[in-house]
Amino acid sequence: MWWTNNSALPGFILVGFSDRPQLELVLFGVILFLYLMTLLGNTTIILVSRLDSKLHTPMYFFLSHLSFLDLCVTSSIIPQLLVNLGGSDKSITYGGCVVQLYVSLALGSTECVLLAVMSYDRYVAVCRPLHYAFVMHPRLCHTLASTAWLSGMATTLVQSTLTLQLPFCGHRQVDHFFCEVPVLIKLACVDTTFNQAELFVASVLFLVLPLSLILISYGYIAQAILRIESVFGRRKAFGTCSSHLTVVIVFYGTIIFMYLQPAKSRSKDQGKFVSLFYTVVTPMFNPLIYTLRNKEVKAALKKILGKTS
Fold this sequence. Notes:
The protein is mainly α. The chain is 75% helix and 2% strand. It has helices spanning 21-51, 58-86, 94-127, 132-135, 138-164, 181-185, 193-227, 231-259, 268-292, 295-308; strands spanning 12-14, 91-92, 173-174. Strands 2-1-3 form a three-stranded mixed sheet. Helix 1 (21-51) runs antiparallel to helix 2 (58-86), helix 3 (94-127) packs antiparallel against helix 5 and helix 7 runs antiparallel to helix 8 (231-259). The relative contact order is 0.14.
């Protein structure tokens, strides 16, 4: 049956991992555990950054935004995924798919820009330490954070809207575990050259460009660290950047594999498991990376826990 898009249309079938039923129960338990850890870890980071006055700095201001992003992106995807993994019903309503599409793309794009903003913060801290307080003043921090959020909202309004304008001609089976632009474009029964080109341009703007800025920042940071004569000074300077650099490598590595690698060069299962990694695993790792590798956060946690005990 041929139909065009509107809110009264039937929903989609999220195929997900239904071709491997023996794996679904295992995934349900693992993903549920990781989701709970994500909620706990990122909420802790936000609360600690707010409650400890020593963490009222630009670095932790941006880290709070990153944690809030991770909370939102996982909550927009994982609950529906758990429902589909835990039962025989693999469907998602049309409205639910639309919400997933807009929200996940907006948050993912925002995180790409935010990580670039955080690299600039680290550049100023290491390369211009005497001017750090002057350069990274609260107004600039709020402007940079707002730019990240607004850019994410702008790209999802364009990409998601263009994707939903495509006629799907009764095709309801989404060979993925959530609704995102690349998989929905594949359902279209018309030529999608324009949509594919627009997706590539957006990927360059939100993946290649921010990553290039991050690499440039860390190039200057590396030069500054190498000029430090004392070993202790080098370790301290590197320590201020190591957590962020680890998050960047994990996040961008999986995202670039998913969006910039030619679709024909990877299997369907590869795409699903890579998506699972950056939507479930990475948001859980971020608070662990910043907690385990950061003395200030650990000290703040001990201080807060000491007051409540």
